[in-house]
Amino acid sequence: MFSGSIVALVTPMQPDGAVDWPALERLIEWHVAEGTHGIVPMGTTGESATLDTEEHMAVIRRTIEIVARRIPVIAGTGSNSTAESIFQTQEAARYGADGCLLVTPYYNRPTQEGLYQHYKAIAAVTDVPLVLYNVPARTACDLKPETVARLAELPRIVGIKEACGDPTRVAEIRARVPDAFCVLSGEDAQTLRMLELGAVGTISVTANVLPRMMAEFCSAWLAGEVDRAIALDERLQPVHRILFVETSPSPTKWALYEMGRIDRGIRLPLLELSAAHRDALRACLKTIGAL
Question: Disulfide engineering: 218 pairs with which of 5, 18, 51, 117, CB 3.0-4.6 Å?
């Protein structure tokens, strides 16, 4: 259902931390023009943890309005509260989201059965395609392949963004789920390997900075142009590394600031990229042609 390069969109902010709505519109229009295949507003890269519910839903709603059905919008509506996830998912569906991305409940550390019941409860009361999101490094829980397989039996659950850190997880999941179930990379540096193992695209941080190149990389692979995809991946790897030199999305937001696309705002407890890494980031962007 979802494939290609789907950007895990940053939320542009003014220096005081307020959402920068004009910058959000400019970013979205840039992504559409550059060929990005889909947009995720209010994923973890969008600083969903530090926007209140009203802001969170406003960013999703405005993104859907600006995109105007030109490419899919998969709204980030995951929470560590099942009731909150249900509310946000129902609201996003009402706004017209094409899908919703549901991160595993962070901090709570639920059992596999708890994870199953969490997602089952959301799927039971919503009518929008749901994409699971597994990122144990940030949530302290790991959605196991056997649980993904159980969830894939539910009609609303159509895919997973997998970011456990082990690309072979893709093969484990693919062996257990229907062919139509989409597996998306959540680790930019591992995307090529994940595509080789059966993923159909990526929900990407790097796409914030290099939307056209990430779209071309995914399109090349999906079109069977393997050598071209490998060549593009080799060029992209230094960017993947530098964008995670500190906690994401700090490096990505600084890169976009350097590129003149957003202001330098970010919310505590995250900080602007430290001065120690700025020269290396700037050099990387120049090498790849982003500056």
Answer: 5
pTM above 0.90, yes or no: yes
Residue 1: pLDDT above 90? Answer: no
How confident is residue 38, by pLDDT bands cut at 50, 70 and 90?
A: very high
User: Tokens 């090529």 — which residue?
Assistant: 192
Per the domain annotation, does 231 fall within a domain?
no
The CATH number for 41's domain is 3.20.20.70
List of residues 6+ apart from 223 with CB closer than 8 A: none
CA distance 243 to 227: 25
Which residues are annotated as catalytic?
133, 161
Query: What's the domain range around 178?
Result: 4-223
C-alpha torsion sign, points 287, 13, 247, 199: negative
What percentage of the chain reaches a pLDDT higher than 70?
A: 100
Is 249 buried (19+), middle (13-18) or exposed (0-12) by CB count in 10 A?
buried
The total domain count for the chain is 1
> Strands, DSSP E only, in 109-174?
130-134, 157-162
Please give the Cα distance from 249 to 155 (Å, whole number).
33
Average pLDDT over residues 113-133: 98
